[in-house]
Design a protein that fits this description.
The protein has eleven helices and 13 strands. It is an alpha/beta fold and 379 residues long. The chain folds into two domains: 190 residues, Rossmann fold, CATH 3.40.50.720; 157 residues, NAD(P)-binding Rossmann-like Domain (Rossmann fold). The protein is elongated and about 70 Å long. The termini are far apart.
């Protein structure tokens, strides 16, 4: 098929390269981008011209203060900014026909497509198809998704949904399940999937805080027992207590859901509790670092400034959130005795830190006499 890709950024570039392995792809972005196996074109008109499917993967950003790398629970809830998506959906009316299917994959709150986007759709067919993809593993997640989410107006598997499904079946693993619902269903599946993960991480890290204060608990014994409870508590993913949720999606999704809870007058805001617990858990680790710094007379260094190993992005970095509670802190430097926090799991377990250093390991995996385990309170 002939594919147009609008928005060739952190997500779009890798996804477009996967598609280009089997299909003809051209991309458009406002920035200079150099994909490995498909061509970039200079205008939206050209990227739409003659394409069967046109994917839109532009950001739905938040206010920069709301990325989750600093405390946000005290800020007024805000929705995502849909300006770029709306501008593109409006503009492509000039360059498309009813023979073309436009697929939006950007994250939005439930109700947004029906309220904000559909009134702009004039000359093309439209479908909503959010992705469950993590930075650093985009291509693998693309071809091995947990599910493919497809939203249509009435929730039925329309002809357009079948076209999109047939397209994905040329790219992804054959046993993948497809979840088809209304636009609103698809929006909710994506964003509640993310907030389930955030809630799960907050809960297991609460166990870690209890162990730290109780003094007779081992976090990993408790979370291990829960992880193996697959009847009512399902799945081992995100059951390792350590640092909190990070990245450009999960924290900001919970912030947007706070806005939704207020707008819908739900009468409660679980999402605010998730964000508040995320921040207090970071403050608890920061206080432990401050106490160790005072006890040993050493500065604090956090290893792993990015939000996860193997990526350069600091959006929603939990290490930065911890650091925001410490007056003086450094990142990713190993040049003197210090109190070192292992902000990334399985990265610094074999690292030789300067003699006299103290290493705080919230993952409880580094085996070295200089290491203190956070969350293993057994006396």
């Amino acid at each position: 098929m002939k594919i147009g890709f609008i928005g060739v950024g952190k997500l779009g570039k890798d996804v477009g390269e996967v598609m280009a392995e089997k299909h003809f792809v051209e991309g458009y972005d406002v920035r200079e981008v150099t994909p490995t196996n498909f061509k970039m074109v200079p205008t939206i008109k050209e990227v739409c011209n003659g394409k069967d499917l046109i994917f839109i993967a532009v950001p739905t950003p938040h206010d920069p203060l709301y990325d989750g790398s600093h405390p946000t629970s005290h800020l007024t809830p805000k929705d995502f900014d849909y300006t770029t998506v709306k501008n593109i959906l409006d503009e492509i009316n000039d360059y498309t026909t009813k023979e073309q299917l436009v697929v939006l994959i950007s994250t939005v709150l439930p109700g947004t497509t029906r309220r904000e986007f559909i009134p702009l759709v004039k000359n093309y067919r439209f479908i909503y198809n959010p992705y469950l993809i993590a930075m650093g593993t985009v291509k693998n997640d693309m071809v091995n998704p947990e599910m493919v989410i497809i939203g249509t107006e009435d929730g039925s598997e329309t002809t357009d949904a079948k076209i999109l499904r047939d397209f994905y079946e040329t790219l992804i693993t054959p046993w993948t399940r497809y979840e088809i619902g209304t636009w609103d269903d698809a929006e909710a599946i994506k964003i509640f999937y993310n907030t389930f993960i955030s809630a799960k991480i907050s809960l297991v890290n609460m166990i870690q805080d209890v162990a730290e204060k109780n003094g007779n608990m081992d976090t990993d014994i408790v979370t291990g027992a829960l992880e193996r409870s697959t009847y009512r508590i399902t799945g081992p993913a995100y059951m390792k207590a350590g640092l909190g949720d990070g990245g450009s999606c999960h924290p900001r999704d919970n912030i947007a859901l706070r806005y939704m809870a207020k707008e819908l007058d739900l009468g409660y805001d679980l999402f605010d509790s998730i964000m508040l617990s995320r921040e207090i858990q970071a403050k608890n680790i920061a206080n432990r670092l401050i106490d160790l710094s005072a006890e040993y007379g050493l500065p604090v260094v956090i290893m792993g400034k990015s939000y996860k190993p193997g990526v350069e992005y600091t959006d929603g970095s939990y290490s930065l959130l911890i650091g925001s509670f410490i007056m003086e802190v450094e990142y990713d430097t190993i040049n003197k005795p210090a109190i070192y926090l292992l902000g990334h799991r399985n990265v610094f377990n074999e690292t030789e830190f300067p003699m006299g250093s103290i290493v705080l390991d919230p993952w409880r995996e580094r085996v070295h006499k200089d290491t203190i385990y956070y969350g293993k309170g057994v006396k």
